[in-house]
Amino acid sequence: MLLAPLVRRTWAPSGRTPVFYQRTRFHQKVSVIAALAVSPRRDRVRFFFRCHPQANMDTTRVCDFLRQLTRQLPEPMVLLWDRFRPHKAKKMGRFLRQHPAIHPEFFPPYAPELNPAERPWAYLKMNPLANWAAPEVTELARRTRQHARAIQRTEPLLRSFVTHGPLPLRLV
After folding, report:
1. What is the pTM of this model?
2. Among the four residues 18, 39, 51, 97, which has the most C-beta atoms within 10 Å?
3. d(CA 100, CA 17)
4. What whole-number distance in Å separates Cα of residue 168 and Cα of residue 81?
5. Domain coordinates of the chain in residue numbers?
6. 107: closest CA among 82, 87, 86?
7. Quick one: pLDDT band at residue 91, thresholds 50, 70, 90?
C-alpha cells in the first residue's frame, strides 16, 4: 500500500482513468521547516530546509534550525515568520534573547499568502510530488529532500518565490 498522494489534474489516454492505490487511515507524515534568505543587498536568494519524518515541529526543532541558520548566514538577521505556536513559545523567547542579532517580525494572523517560505512547498506539492503515492514515509522524506535540493540550486525559481508574492521585497 502507498501513502496518499496530493492528487492533481493529469493527462491519461482516452477512456483510461488514472488510478492511485494508497493506504487509508494511515497517519504517517514528514514535517518540514524552511527559510528563504534574501541577502542584505538583495542580490542573492538562498533556500534552507530540514525534513523530520514521523515528528511534529516543536520549539526545540525550530531553535535547532535557527542555530544552524546563524552558522550559515551573516548576522544580523531579520526573521519574517508566521504565528506558529513554537515561534511564540517562552523557550523561543529565551533563545532569541541569547541571540540578539536575530530580529523576529510576525506576519499578520491568518496570512500564509504573505510568507514566501510557503511557496517552495506549494511548488513541490503541485509539481514534482503531485500524483505520486509514496510507498513509505522514508521514501517520501527522501524524495522531498531530493526535490528541495534541486530547488536550492535554481536561483531563478527562488527569486520567483520572493518577487511574485505580495510583500514589497525588491530583488536586484
Report:
1. 0.82
2. 51
3. 56
4. 15
5. 30-149
6. 82
7. very high
